[in-house]
Every structure is written in C-alpha cells, then in structure tokens.
Amino acid sequence: MALTSTPEQPLPVRTVARAIGDWINRLGRVWVEGQLTEIVRRPGLATVFLTLRDPVADVSLRLTCPRAVCDAVGSALTDGARVVVQGKPSFHPARGTLALAVTEIRPIGTGILLARLEQLRGMLAAEGLFAASRKRRPPFLPRAVGLITGRASAAERDVVMNARRRWPAVRIVSREVAVQGPLAVGQIIDALRELDGVPEVDVIVIARGGGSLEDLLPFSDEALVRAVAAATTPVVSAIGHEQDTPLLDFVADVRASTPTDAAKRVVPDVAEQLALVTTLRGRARRSVEQRLDREERWLADLRGRPALAAPGRELDRHDEYVRALRSRGRRCVLHQLERADQELAHALAQLHALSPAATLDRGYALVRRVADGSIVRDPAQATPGDALTVRVAGGSFPATVDSPPAGARTQTGTTT
C-alpha cells in the first residue's frame, strides 16, 4: 500500500522507516553467492559482521551472522572466500540500514569453482575474447614495460631483475596492487587502465606468484578479463606456475608460464642479440668473400683465354684477314678495269669502223652546198655556179659547179 503525503502534511521518518521495514520483512529467505570481505569479529559480541561482494559488479551487501554459524564453517571463512549464504533481508529502522541476516554459510568447493570457471570460459570464448586473431605481438624492444604486481613480491623481483639482466636499459613502470582478496580485481583493473593510457608503455605485464585456486580467483574474474580484452596495449599474463591457467591467460596477448618467462618475452637478451649480430656479420663477410673469390676466378678464367692472354695475336690475325680482303679487292678492281678497257677498245673500234671519217680515209668525199649546208647526194642537186664544200680525209676545200655533172639528165657543166 502506497504512503500518502503532501508538503503540508509530510510523513515522519519513523513512519517511512517502519513502512520500508515492513515491506522488506515480507521478503522470504534467499540463497546468495558472493565473495566475503571485511569480516569483523568483536570480542564478547555474539554477532559477526561481514560484507558479501559480487565478484563481477561493484555491488556489496552487508551480512549479520551468529558467531556459532561462522565458527561452524571453520578455517574456510576467510577474507576473499567464495561462499553461498542463506539469509533473510532485514531493515533496521534505527540506523536506516539494510542487512542480510544469515542463518547458514556454505563454502564453495573446488569442484564447483572449477565448473563455474569452465562455464565462464566457454561463455567468453563464444564471444570471441580468446580468439587468436585479436591477439597482438608485443614490440621487439618496448620503450617502457608496464608491470602490475603485488607490493614487494617475488614476482615483481623476478620480472625486474630478469628484464634488466637481459636488457639493462629497460624502463619499467610498476603499479603495486593487491593480487588476492576482494580488493584485487578493482585495483588491477584501475592499474591496467592507467598504464594503458601511458603512451610510452608498449607492453603491460600482469604478474603474480603461485597460489591456491582461491588465491588466483581474481585473475579469472569476468570484469578483469573484459578489461584486458578492451586494452589497446598488448598484455602479458604471468600468473602462478606452468600448471596454473586462470582465464587471464586465455585473453592475454601473450601467456608466460612464470614471471621470469614474462621478462624473457617482453625484452630481448642483449648478449643474444650481440651474438646474433656477430653471427650475421660473419655470415655476411663469408658471403662477400665467397662472391669476391668467385669473381676473381671468373676474371682469371677470362684472362686465361687466348683473346686476352695474347691480344696481339688476334689483332695480327685480323690484320692478315684485312690485308687479304684488300688484295682481293684490288685484284677485283683491276680485273674490272681491264675488262672495261677491253670493252671500251672494242667499242671504239666498232665506232671507228662505222664512223664517216673511216669512209673518207678510203677515198670518199662529203659534198655540202654552202648555201644551205645540205649534203649533195645526187648530181642533179648541183647546178652550175653553186658553191660547194668538199670534205676529204685530209680536210675540206671549196668548189664551184662549172658545168652540169656528167650523167645529169637535165643540166651540163664542170666543176673546179
């Protein structure tokens, strides 16, 4: 039933507190699972005060438990223990606080814890948080290494000493946190986010020594696993020993079997790198020397060939060849000239035989009329008084028709 009130008629605190108490008291008994923190046993007091924390969310609930119930649990009732409690919610009007009045506490056994961790691992794997495709390789030589570990712990000493032994100039940015108990998850997540925001930190190592399953439970916390998956900087998990496999190992970019192994994985060994450089330099030197030896043998082989061993001999051979070609060319040219001379002489003889001068040499004469230069071929062409030019073998002389030539049919006369 809702309470009725107005600014003019407000309800007193006791009425509201009593109504809240009545509503909560109507709730039945419930079983609740969580992680115990802040266990307070006051001497002479029959009630033990505890806090039950949700391991995934930042939510806690106050518990009140009879001392006898807590003593019945024995040594399993420790800070950070995972338990299942039965109780009834109750509201204390005098203090205005809500608490769970516990009547039974049952520690969660190892088998149950492992089964629940396996169930959580399957769920996270189905989401792809453990996929190999999302894992990143840390840089070969990081500018700075972020280290999240316990205060003055052996894990911190192992990581720092081995990293500096391998690479003395390495820079390590440490964050000391609780590595077990109810505060561990929150502090580790805060340190992870802080180091993830430092630009110089190229890799983050989360390290802890060995321990029981309960001690390593914070490193299987769902909130921590999701925080590591969301980090932009590569994360190396170095939790416990080789046989310890918290869920952090599956989501981390690199899983180291021990903190010492983590140091080997984040920084190179300067001695190994120097030895590698020496080996590579020797290999390069041998390769160059082999190449030079091969080229020297090739040059020696070239120099041993006749063309390079006695270059003058080849020049002499070519000189003889050129001389032979020149002699052959000269002979061909002379032969062609002789043939041309013979052909020219033959042509000249033919030309001389056919020449009018040769006919004149045999006693013939060539008569031309002076008036028009025409050749007189018939006596009828000449008339008395015509001026003629008579050409004989020895030269030309003039003549005049005096009378008609003998044998002319129409004219008579003499020539002089």
From TrEMBL:
Catalysed reactions, semicolon-separated: Exonucleolytic cleavage in either 5'- to 3'- or 3'- to 5'-direction to yield nucleoside 5'-phosphates
Cell location: Cytoplasm
Coiled-coil intervals: none
Region Disordered: start-end pairs: 396-416
Main location: cytoplasm
The keyword Disulfide bond belongs to this UniProt entry's keyword annotation: no
Signal peptide interval: none
InterPro entries per the UniProt record, alphabetical: Exonuc_VII_L (IPR003753), Exonuc_VII_lsu_C (IPR020579), OB-fold_nuc-bd_dom (IPR025824)
Classification via Pfam families: Exonuc_VII_L, tRNA_anti_2
The protein's role, per its UniProt record: Bidirectionally degrades single-stranded DNA into large acid-insoluble oligonucleotides, which are then degraded further into small acid-soluble oligonucleotides.
Family named by the database record: Belongs to the XseA family.
Subunit structure, interactors included: Heterooligomer composed of large and small subunits.
Protein name: Exodeoxyribonuclease 7 large subunit
Organism whose genome encodes this protein: Candidatus Protofrankia datiscae
The gene coding this protein: xseA
